[in-house]
Amino acid sequence: MDDKKLIFSAIQPTGTFTLGNYIGAVRNWAPLQDKYDCIYCIADMHAITVKQEPAKLRQNSLAAYALLMACGMDPKRSILFIQSHAPTHALLNWVLCCNTQFGELSRMTQFKDKSQRHPDDVNAGLFTYPSLMAADILAYNADMVPVGVDQKQHLELARNIAQRFNQRYGDFFTLPEPLILEVGAKVMSLQDPTKKMSKSDENPNACVLILDDKDTIIRKFKRAVTDSEAEVVFREGKDGINNLMTIYSSVTGKDFAAIEAEFAGKGYGDFKLAVGEAVADHLEPVRTEFDRLIADKAYLKECYTTGAEQAMKISSRIVSKVYHKVGFVDPR
Ligand code: ATP
Ligand code: LTN
Q1: Which DSSP state fits 87?
Q2: Both 229 and 286 in a single domain?
């Protein structure tokens, strides 16, 4: 790698990406490849912090990898790999866990949410999730981390861990900066626009999956919860409409004023249909490319094997230095 800034991000293979993952995260990752060195990872180790069916996880991880490529991530220009293929992350995680406080982890809202949602499985991995995420980033000394706004707290913790390590053992880690977009950083559920759209929502109408077909996408938007007015304007209290306007804006590039003008005097039915059509048309090329890639398992394998080698090359050097710094005996 040269002296361009280094980007790192990851996504969990907990299911097909939602429109939230796409607008808030993945879609913004491809253009970064023009300016930066980029490393993108399928976080399968994070995924098992909630129960996963093994065969399904394997299938989802491959699909997620193909989806990253279908969304424009280019294995020739960037490093694309699967987290469990780079054991360095787990090796670094241990050291970082020993530099992370119980109190810090207890304050993470994702931990609080997920432990409430899965009260029968509040496991230690779910609790230390942010430390593994810090390891993902710090194993490459990444400069910037593009994520949706829900991950901001985890990134702040990653910076604190890095800072604490640097203070204790001497300057070593780069403090990673979050890269969070203003518009679309949080796409809300279509059924409850006060909650974020999430892959793990039980209500299938709440989230649009990026592999949904056109009819399904339009149907989900038609059923989206809005309000009892009939005015397409972006305003406090109109959570449902605000969310649809944000989505429409991010797939068409139109600003809110233009959208308000376009739908002045029209009802919500017309607006929802237009949003559904715009989203479906926007995602069409992603679906087509995904179908092509997922049918070519040999090519996918070639890409993720190379990606893991590249990731290991960088991260194993960093982890060796960390192990030396904390006082472990050099193995050779
Ligand atoms: P899960 O529901 O399994 O926790 P998730 O849908 O929240 O998963 P992740 O894999 O945790 O997805 O997140 C991948 C990326 O997508 C992250 O950068 C995250 O910030 C972003 N993201 C997730 N949901 C949304 C959303 N509703 N709006 C915007 N960005 C989102
Ligand atoms: N926790 C992240 C996924 C993730 C990640 C990372 C993001 C795992 N490791 C490192 C950025 C950097 C999420 O989006 N839920």
Answers
A1: T
A2: yes
Give per-residue pLDDT as tens, 15-46: 889 999 999 889 999 999 999 999 999 999 99
Q: Give the number of the ligand closest to the Cα of residue 93.
A: 2
Structure token pair of residue 239: 């959570």
Ligand at minimal distance from the CA of 181 is 1
Give yes or no: 321 in active site.
no
Secondary structure E strands in the chain:
6-11, 37-42, 79-82, 144-146, 177-179
- Residue 301 known to be catalytic: no
Q: What is the residue type of 290?
A: F
**DSSP three-state, residue 42:** strand
Asked if residue 194 is part of any domain, the answer here is no
CA 219 to ligand 2 center in whole angstroms: 31
Count helices and strands (H / E) in the chain: 14, 5
Whether the Cβ atoms of residue 155 and residue 146 lie closer than 8 Å to each other: no
Domain of 260 in residue numbering reads as 204-291
The per-residue pLDDT for 186 is 87
Q: How far is the CA of 18 from the centre of ligand 1 (A)?
A: 8
pLDDT of 280 > 90? The answer is yes
Residue 1's pLDDT band (boundaries 50, 70, 90)? Answer: low
Catalytic member of 5, 199, 214, 222: 199
The tens digit of pLDDT for each residue in 132-187 reads 999 999 999 999 999 888 899 999 999 999 999 999 999 999 999 999 877 667 89
User: Rounded to whole angstroms, how far apart are CA atoms 166 and 322?
Assistant: 10
CA of 136 to the centre of ligand 2 (A): 8
- Is residue 114 part of the annotated active site? The answer reads yes
Q: Which atom of ligand 1 is nearest to the CA of 201?
A: 2
Does residue 254 share a domain with residue 143? no
d(CA 332, CA 330): 5
Instruction: State percent of the chain over pLDDT 90.
Output: 91
Number of domain units in the chain: 2
